[in-house]
Structures are given as C-alpha cells and as structure tokens.
Amino acid sequence: MLRFEYMPSDFHPLFLFLGEGTDLAALAALLRRFAENPQFITVAERIPGAVSRHELVLAPADDEFGMRDLGGRFAWKLTGWQAERIAERIELLTPQDSKSGSEILEIGSDGEIPVKMSRGEFTDDFLITRR
To answer: What is the tens place of the pLDDT at every residue in 61-119?
Structure first.
C-alpha cells in the first residue's frame, strides 16, 4: 500500500512516500499519465489503497514548481517534462530484486518541499499507526 505524508520540521521538512515496488510503480504510472495531459489529479483517488492524512494533488505548474503546502493540503506542481523525469527516477526503485532504496526528488524551485520516495526502509505501519 502506498503511504504518503508531510513530515514537518523547522529545518528540513519533507514529503515522504513509502511503499513497495508495485506501489511506487503505480505512482510512477500516474505521473506518466499526468505528463501526457497535465491536469489536477488527486493522488489518493487514483491509486487504490493509498493512505494519507493529507490531501495531495498533482497540479500543472504555474509560477511555482515542486511540492507546495497550500495550508494543510499539498500540490505537487509539475510540468509534463518534470513529471516524466520524476517517474523515471521512481521506477529505479521498483525492480523486484531490489529490497530497499530511496530517492530525494526536488525541482530546485525556491520554497519547494523536498519529496522522498522510500522502499523497504520503514515498517509497513509507519505513517499509519506509528504517527
């Protein structure tokens, strides 16, 4: 099951995605669909079984890029090209023979929240019952 949540911090906040290979592959596929036709997409509605305490939408980039806090709701503002490149990086974590790994994803835009993709580095209940 794909789990995602904002992890606040005074110094290094991040938006964390956790899952197994198939979960991360589903997110990469959603990003590829977004890349073909950038439009507002609510992530939890498009990935069955996804769990989060925060609403997250993929959103076409405007004057900002990257993960943005919209007051407790989050928007990952991307161009089609950026979404395609991020999908490629996520797919590097999905091979069946890969047991664990992570990737920090940033566009390089002022004020964006870094996004961490993680496979096999946390217990299955992390972000569900342990927070």
So the answer is: 999 999 999 998 999 999 999 999 999 999 999 988 877 889 999 999 999 999 999 88
Structure tokens at 123: 């217990």
Burial-class residue 32 by CB neighbours within 10 Å (0-12, 13-18, 19+).
middle
Grouping H, G, I as helix, E, B as strand and the rest as coil, residue 22 is helix
pTM of the model: 0.89
Cβ neighbors of 18 (< 8 A, separation 6 or more) are 2, 3, 4, 118, 119, 121, 122, 126, 127
What is the spatial distance between Cα 120 and Cα 12, in angstroms, rounded to a whole number? 22
**Token representation of residue 76:** 């990952």
Closest C-alpha to 120, from 50, 5, 20: 20
